[in-house]
TrEMBL record:
This is O-antigen ligase-related domain-containing protein. It is found in: Membrane. It comes from Streptomyces venezuelae. Pfam families: Wzy_C (PF04932). The chain crosses the membrane at residues 25-43, 55-71, 78-98, 110-129, 136-157, 180-200, 207-224, 230-247, 254-271, 366-388, 400-420, 426-447. It is a multi-pass membrane protein. The lineage of its organism: Bacteria, Bacillati, Actinomycetota, Actinomycetes, Kitasatosporales.
Length: 455
């Protein structure tokens, strides 16, 4: 039995869900790539090499959908500069794989790098057609951050988190103690996006208020992650977003965040002692470093030594662990201890220098670093110039620019003391794609002739 209003066709006035799904269905794999990171992984899968997570599978589906639509001419046109920036890293990866001591051992690294730094970013640039779809993708990040942040706060409150200074209080979300940076990373992504939406000129008042509330809420799990690197990168990215949005707005948001921090830490005592100690340790990395900082310095020196040995092409993808001991001093420990959050004691080996630029330099040499980091520099400069440009079309979607620049600044800053690894790595490819979508502003929204004629 069906009911209809007299004088009105059945279903009139209701959203055309079929039309919306038909128009935006290519974004479903992109949304799944982000949102599937809500699901917990079995213990040991978070950092295990060669494991394909549900989010990875969704990203591969995203690439497949992009390939099919590209063959049908239903994707954005890619400018020559875009093709160069997005495709050149593949050349460096191929060189590092072929020249590796064991090319077969380097092949999994080639596939992973190709996925994160070439295929997924290109798919995002080609498939996201307008600002509305960009905002939908960004909204998925905020949803993921709020869910993971809520789990992290619960872990801290109930002492069911990862082990930190003898207590199971470190907020790690569903990523587990084997990937302590996972929750901090996705929460930071959501906080940066929410801050950008709250500051962007022209944003609806309702959206601005919701974004500001989300940003304040996400400060709590970020603090409880006890991740110094995430704190630094988030502060830097938020500061860039504030400056680009306007000094007056920046001062208001900075005052609100400062007040929230004082209330949370000073008033409620949320991790006050441990957070103060963690903050103090940032300034002691050279005078009185702890063992984790000593290990990082030692691995940085090892990566530099590998590059000096093979400056052009490096030691090959996945070659850092095999060459580490031959280039390290005796100050390097055997690994880091992890426990808690439903997992027993595990000794995690140190298999990377925890610096993406040094990892690229040691394994891919100057060829790989120029191809990857050079392209990132182009995207960053072009993106900032477009945000500041007087172009009316760009100003109407300035919120997208603030989001893209904020996320990209966070990622490139975080790469100074972290590298790829863990389930959240796939989001790096999405962020590079969103940054490229904004920076290569002439291409997005302009569909190929065949696709436009078909519609």
């Amino acid at each position: 039995m069906s009911f209809a209003v007299p004088g009105r066709a059945p279903g009139a006035g209701l959203p055309d869900l079929r039309g919306l799904l038909h128009r935006h269905w290519p974004l479903l794999p992109l949304a799944a790539t982000v949102l599937l990171l809500v699901a917990p992984l079995p213990a040991g899968d978070a950092t295990a090499s060669g494991k394909v997570t549900p989010a990875d599978a969704a990203s591969l589906l995203l690439v497949a959908v992009c390939a099919v639509r590209a063959l049908r001419g239903e994707v954005n046109r890619l400018s020559p500069l875009g093709a160069l920036v997005l495709g050149l890293p593949a050349v460096g990866l191929a060189v590092a794989t072929v020249t590796a001591g064991d090319p077969y051992a380097a092949l999994p690294g080639f596939v992973r790098y190709l996925q994160v730094f070439v295929l997924v970013p290109a798919a995002v640039v080609l498939l996201v057609r307008d600002a509305r779809e960009f905002r939908l993708a960004a909204g998925c990040f905020v949803v993921l951050a709020l869910v993971q942040g809520a789990v992290g706060v619960f872990q801290y409150a109930t002492h069911t988190g990862a082990s930190y200074q003898g207590e199971d209080i470190r907020a790690v979300g569903t990523f587990g103690p084997g990937d302590v940076m996972g929750m901090a990373t996705v929460v930071a992504y959501g906080l940066v996006i929410a801050t950008a939406l709250a500051l962007a000129p022209g944003t609806r008042q309702r959206t601005r208020r919701a974004a500001a509330a989300a940003a304040l809420l996400l400060v709590v799990p970020l603090v409880l992650s006890f991740s110094r690197g995430a704190w630094i990168a988030t502060f830097g990215a938020a500061l860039v977003v504030m400056v680009l949005a306007g000094i007056r707005r920046a001062l208001k948001v900075l005052a609100a965040l400062t007040a929230a921090g004082v209330v949370l830490v000073g008033g409620f005592g949320v991790g006050s002692e441990m957070m103060a100690e963690r903050l103090t340790s940032i300034t002691q990395v050279s005078s009185a470093p702890d063992q984790s900082v000593t290990d990082r310095y030692t691995m940085w020196a090892a990566a530099s030594s590998m590059w000096q040995e093979r400056p052009a092409a490096g030691v090959g993808l996945k070659g850092f662990p095999a060459h580490r001991d031959g280039h390290s001093s005796l100050g390097l420990s055997s690994g880091s201890d992890t426990a808690g959050a439903g997992q027993g004691y595990v000794r995690q080996p140190l298999l990377s220098p925890h610096n993406m630029y040094l990892l690229i330099l040691s394994e891919q040499g100057l060829i790989g670093l120029t191809a990857l980091a050079g392209g990132w520099a182009v995207l960053l400069v072009a993106g900032i110039r477009r945000v500041a440009a007087p172009d009316p079309a760009a100003r109407r979607i300035r919120d997208c620019g603030l989001i893209a620049i904020g996320l990209f600044v966070w990622q490139t800053t975080d790469f100074l003391y972290a590298d790829i690894g863990g389930p959240s790595t796939v989001l790096t490819g999405v962020i590079i794609g969103l940054a490229a979508w904004w920076a290569l502003g002439a291409a997005p929204g302009a569909m190929s002739r065949a696709g436009a004629a078909g519609r």
